[in-house]
TrEMBL record:
<dbReference type="Pfam" id="PF13473">
    <property type="entry name" value="Cupredoxin_1"/>
</dbReference>
<protein>
    <recommendedName>
        <fullName>EfeO-type cupredoxin-like domain-containing protein</fullName>
    </recommendedName>
</protein>
<dbReference type="InterPro" id="IPR008972">
    <property type="entry name" value="Cupredoxin"/>
</dbReference>
<feature type="domain" description="EfeO-type cupredoxin-like">
    <location>
        <begin position="32"/>
        <end position="112"/>
    </location>
</feature>
<dbReference type="InterPro" id="IPR028096">
    <property type="entry name" value="EfeO_Cupredoxin"/>
</dbReference>
Amino acid sequence: MKTFLSIILALMLIGGLVWLTSDPKDSGTGSTTTQNNVSVVNGRQIVRITAKGGYWPRQTVAKANLPTTIKVTTNGSFDCSVALTIPALKHRSFLPATGETDIDLPEQKPGSIVQGLCAMGMYSFVISFN
Ligand SMILES: [Cu+2]
């Protein structure tokens, strides 16, 4: 746990430096609108979340009773949003600075809410299932 925290602190320091030099062209998948981040492919629901200085969109409404994959996209992300935890799943991962990470969710009941947090709890996103 101590190691985990020092990695996060290091990331935050690096992030501060990279912030000044990062190039602004990060369109692509990150630019999809909030209403557009849920799709169903071959019976599996895909929820797209972008992690960079927080999680976007912050709130997503998805369908219950469908196997779901959260697809987390990073693109030059050097802040602590890459240290992702999803308490309901006991999930904890370090996302790559740039890339896509799939996190599978079991089918959710209507009314279920899944929250993702950075390891320090300052950034979050919420997916509600109905
Ligand atoms: Cu954080």
